[in-house]
Known about the structure:
The protein has one helix spanning 66-77; strands at 22-26, 32-36.
Amino acid sequence: MIGLPPEVPDHPAGLCILCAHHRVTGNRRGSRFYLCERSKTDPSFRRYPPLPMIRCPGFERGPPDPWSDFADESEEDR
Ligand code: SF4
């Protein structure tokens, strides 16, 4: 299903955190970056979208990225 969810989640990444097309990257200092995989095939999507994303025509609900949890823990540990 492609479309907007009923509400934007209370998360710094907004919609991207619920989207099947996001991927979390980071560095050893604990910074997190939310990459949009749609940017690889569609130039209308930015590789690193401005966050929080509140509306996106490419949104597709998907399973959570397992790296999201790791990144959250890393930030809390700082
Ligand atoms: S398609 Fe939109 S909501 Fe999904 S990851 Fe890319 S920018 Fe975020």
